[in-house]
Amino acid sequence: MPCPYTGIMNDLTNTDHVFHREVGRDYPVAARASGVYIYDTAGRRYLDGAGGYFVVNIGHGVTEIGAAIADQLARFANAHTSHFTSEAEQKFADRLIALAPKGFAKVWMSTSGSAANETALKLVRHYHLVNGEPQRTRIIARWNAYHGGTIGSLSMTGQPRRRDPFEPYLLDFPHIEPPYCYRCPFNLTNPGCGIACADALEREIRRVGPQYVAAFIVEPVSGGPLGALVPPAEYLPRIREICDRHGILMIVDEIITAAGRTGRNFGVDHWGVVPDIITAAKGIGGGYLPIGAVIVHHRVYDAFERKGQSFRHGETFAGHSVVAAAGLATLEYLERHDLIRRAAEMGAVLGARLKTLAALPLVGDVRGLGLLWGLELVRDKATKAPFPRALNVSDMVARECANRGLLVVPGVGAVDGIDGDTVSLAPPYIITRAEIAELVTILGQAIEAVAQKLGA
Ligand SMILES: Cc1ncc(COP(=O)(O)O)c(C=O)c1O
């Protein structure tokens, strides 16, 4: 039949005008969501074990957030930040500063995780300019980290699969190995390894020349293909010490870990580390509206204030009053219901249950913190040999899960940017013990079904 809009003769699926993430895939149509579940128009129910994509923390369908959005809309939606601030923006910033480690002074609002990291990239450059060190332009990042899809944030991203098509556009930023204890890149074992992965930063700084390095960016607990990689206890403190020694700013990407995902306010709180800049997004708005924030330590802000210089950057919708109202309502809801403590409590329950899956074929490692967990899937548990990329084993598991009513995050390229399959979980903090049992049961069944298909 011809498409009613274009008149082009198409089959039915091609009358869909959405440029979907995956070409040729038929997506279910979401109809409504409540608590930890999303329902599609065919009446199927999905347990949101992915939290959207490391986002949904207070749960789906919380009416208070809708009410806060409606209330702000009724007063005003758009009073641009070049002319005004708003009560919602002020109060949201107050809340974020109250959650952040001591010494953080200001919040620069943004619109997404990528935009927050792009903002941080420009902020560190501007900071060094203001400080009279214009030669500090290089940002060191880590292989396999994900920092976003815009050109600056993609330049810091260390995933070859995401970088490859755009390599000619990317900034020349060095990358070091992550603290990947399951496959230590230095063939060492923790404890006793001397945290060679942190010393890799020291070596890279010397290689580049400390006087040229502006910042190091690091996720406290990695999501993406690395599947909830938790660093050894000494890693982040050592990184802080190396950055300090060389006058380099430490940016911590808390896009997925902010607002309690790991069971503490921010991921860095587990190690008592105070960075110079924290980027946040996703959960600070509960998933209700697109949001981002750059939380700035007074050390950085004071440099601008001392010189009477403003940060030359801006986004039309950063600081939007309705977004800020949704963020404020989310942070208030987290506090009112003590949900960060609950994330720690339910995280321990989820972690203990997931560890029982280590007995299944394919499951090489189970790791995580709070309500952020990852499973690494391997062809051979003894040698840790990964599956060939072409098999797309993490996608196979994700599809088997979805067919059984569970959403997870598949990850690829953990080992070397190409091979290595992971499945990550980041359910809402309101998840109950019974729902955790359901999640782990379905995940186990899906893994067994894939193992059977692969003859593993
Ligand atoms: C650690 C991390 N940083 C940055 C981003 C980019 O955030 P966004 O997709 O909101 O642009 C993501 C997204 O998944 C992320 O996981």
Topology:
Layout: E1 30-34, E2 37-40, E3 45-48, H1 51-54, H2 63-75, H3 87-99, E4 104-110, H4 113-130, E5 138-142, H5 151-156, H6 160-163, E6 175-176, H7 196-208, E7 213-218, H8 235-245, E8 249-254, E9 277-281, E10 292-297, H9 298-307, H10 321-336, H11 339-356, E11 363-369, E12 372-377, H12 393-403, E13 406-407, E14 409-412, E15 421-425, H13 433-454
Parallel strand pairs: 3-13, 5-6, 5-7, 7-8, 8-9
Antiparallel strand pairs: 1-2, 2-3, 4-10, 9-10, 11-12, 12-15, 14-15
Helix pairs in contact: 2-10, 3-10, 7-8, 11-13, 12-13
This protein binds pyridoxal-5'-phosphate.
Would you identify the regions where 5 or more consecutive residues have pLDDT less than 50?
A: none
Order of helices and strands: EEEHHHEHEHHEHEHEEEHHHEEHEEEH
Number of strands: 15
CATH superfamily of the largest domain: Type I PLP-dependent aspartate aminotransferase-like (Major domain)
The CATH topology of the largest domain turns out to be Aspartate Aminotransferase, domain 2
Share of helical residues: 25-40%
Strand content: 15-25%
What is the total domain count?
2
Can you summarize the main beta sheet?
7 strands, mixed
Strands ordered across the widest β-sheet: 4-10-9-8-7-5-6
CATH class of the largest domain: Alpha Beta
Give the overall shape. Answer: globular
Computed CA radius of gyration, to the nearest angstrom = 22 Å
Helix/sheet category: alpha/beta
Bound molecules: pyridoxal-5'-phosphate
Integer average pLDDT: 96
